[in-house]
Amino acid sequence: MVRSLAVILFLLFTAPVLAAQKSQIYIQLDEALQPHAGQFKQLLSESFSRLKHWQSAGKISHRQEQTLDALITENQGKVDGITLAKIVSVEGESSWFSSAPSVPHLSIKLYSVKTGNLILNIERDLKSSSPQAMFSSLESELPLMLKVKLAEVGNVVKTTKELIYFNLGSSAGIKEGQIFRIFKPGEKLTNKQGETFGWIEDTTGIVQVNHTQSTYSTAQILLGRLSIAADHYIELASNQDKTSYNGKIISIHENKVAINLGENSGVTDGASYAIFKDIKAIKGDEAFREKLAEVNIKSVHKDYSVGEISLSNNYSLSKAFIKAGDSVEEVKPSNLNLVSFGQMGTNALNSGDSKNNPMLGYQDENIQVNGMIYRYRLGYGTDAFASAGVMTSINHSPNFFYGLDGVYLDGMGANFFLSVDVPTPMRKIKINMETGYMAGVGDIYEGFNLNISVKYPFDEMF
Question: Which CB contacts under 8 angstroms, 24+ apart, belong to 57-61?
């Protein structure tokens, strides 16, 4: 009996705190937009229904000639706030040669009935060629505008390899351990006339809060290390179970691997996931584990993705050990887009006629065909040198390649070559050694050639 009474008292005292506050909404439209008043009311009602802390009080009314004070007095004791929403024509920007055309302007203001203070203020010009397109665009944009203004959705301010910083803190109710979804506006929905009807929302990652201050928080990146960027939006995830974001292999076929993470988790084409095998249990779900291979994602679906096993010196062995259920974690992709600086020695078997040409090169990985790389080189010695070609991995190795170049060196010719990239203690730098045979070029250059160069990741240079 005592326990039941305590529960009832708790609910009575906490219900006002836990319940969303109610706002009476009043609308005002230009005469030309009056036929769309019903659509505007529905848009506002649905937008408020997506908020956590504020809801529409029910029937949405047309604002007559009442002053703000009169509306606040009228709603005392009935609701927590009043919202004044209107779309009216205002003068647009003028130019030297034309007068300013009028444009529709959206204004939404939310006031506290108790204090009269302005809680929310949205002012925005709307650029649409028709009322239908304008309201359709607002259907996807207005809920986000309201959430951002009311601090229910924040923005990523800064990212590091493992953490993000975002502009919501303890004053906005953020707590350590909460899981948040990060997203951005994706593809615009546009018709043949160029009218925009909103955009598709793209999830870019999942994070878990590990520290809060009053005005900002930091969060550990669970998914989306490569896709999350500053200015992306962030909101509380509907699923707060961290284990549901653990990546697992769900199927294997030859060199293709499917994982249980997709668009909903922020997976993007080109992302890489390391495959781990648990070796020995430690405690609970924790275990000693070994990295078997990496998977490069080729196609992304709503709740799963498919990729290919990346190049590896242990490719065949890793492939044999990979099983469904093995865990995967996002990692930075192995970078095969490299710049090279070096020297080519032509006609290497004839020391008397051998020529040395300094070279600058660039190689670009084909993301569709695993292990295929395009390469381009320029050089100048006694004569100018230029080449373009393709090389392919030998036995799925990231270090051994063979290929064919089209070459210009005192004449058009071809160069068949074998190439080896040697890792160095400085992980980003590789030493390349190559031997090839050139035919069809100038007589003094034809024959075997030897090359040595230094390779460095292209994207690390800028």
Answer: 57/22, 57/23, 57/24, 57/25, 60/25, 60/26, 60/27, 61/24, 61/25, 61/26, 61/27
CA-closest candidate to residue 142, choices 170, 181, 108: 108
- pLDDT on residue 264: 82
Residue 21 has a pLDDT of 92
Range with the poorest average pLDDT among 6-10, 134-138, 400-404, 411-415: 6-10
Q: How far is CA 213 from CA 205, 234, 249, 264, 315, in A?
A: 22, 17, 37, 28, 46
Q: Cα 244 from chain centroid?
A: 20
Q: Which domain holds residue 26?
A: 17-93+101-128
**Identity at 354, one-letter amino acid code:** S
Confirm whether pTM is higher than 0.70.
Answer: no
Same domain? 264 vs 206: no
Average pLDDT over residues 337-357: 82
On average, the pLDDT of the chain sits at: 86
- Residue 415 CB coordination number (10 Å): 25
| 194 DSSP assignment | -
Q: How far is CA 249 from CA 68, 147, 205, in A?
A: 59, 36, 19
Sign for the CA dihedral angle at 192, 196, 198, 203 comes to positive
> How many CB atoms are located within 10 Å of the residue 128 CB?
17
User: Alpha-carbon Rg of the chain, whole angstroms?
Assistant: 31
Residue 6 lies in a domain: no
Q: Is residue 265 part of a domain?
A: yes
Provide the sign of the torsion angle of the four alpha carbons 431, 437, 440, 445, taken in this order.
positive
| Position 220 pLDDT exceeds 60 | yes
Given pLDDT bands bounded at 50, 70 and 90, which one contains residue 390? very high
Q: What counts of helices (H) and strands (E) characterise the chain?
A: 5, 26
344 and 327 share a domain? no
Among residues 275, 303, 164, the alpha carbon closest in space to that of 221 is found at 164
Domain count across the chain: 4
